């Protein structure tokens, strides 16, 4: 493969190696979409909550001090981006974080960046 010259030579020796590892747009689109969805503070709080428990809309609304319609709106967005999943039990819908590598990595990233400690399992 021919080495492409960059417009400016800043003396970096690893540009070609970095270029060879640069993700394609399609490869990184899912991560970008997930991060966009978590850019809203309310969705971020709901996502974090659902990383630690499975809950229904009314309980989520009470925990995060929001209206049920507002929580439902955020849940739809999180679900459409693949970050959470739902299940029906009778008339009730329950939500939790999707069991995906991306969701787990985002969960840990949120806690590291925010210096948030995970609650103990038995406290929920």
Task: Give the topology.
Layout: H1 15-21, H2 25-37, H3 41-52, E1 55-56, H4 57-64, H5 68-80, E2 84-89, E3 92-97, H6 101-114
Antiparallel strand pairs: 1-3, 2-3
For the structure shown, list the relevant keywords:
124 residues; mainly alpha; three-stranded antiparallel sheet; 6 helices; 3 strands; 54% helix; 11% strand
What does this molecule look like?
This protein is 54% helix and 11% strand. It is mainly α. Strands 1-3-2 form a 3-stranded antiparallel β-sheet. Helix 4 packs across helix 5. The N and C termini lie far apart (56 Å).
| SSE sequence, one letter per element | HHHEHHEEH
How far apart are the first and last residues' alpha carbons, in Å? 56 Å
Structural class determined from secondary elements: mainly alpha
Mean pLDDT: 87
Radius of gyration: 20 Å
Q: What coarse outline follows from CA principal-axis ratios? A: elongated
Output the number of helix runs: 6
Helix % is: 40-55%
Biggest pleated-sheet summary = 3 strands, antiparallel
Q: Could you tell me the strand content as a percent range?
A: 5-15%
Order of strands, main sheet, comes to 1-3-2
Q: How many β-strands, per DSSP?
A: 3
Low-confidence stretches: none
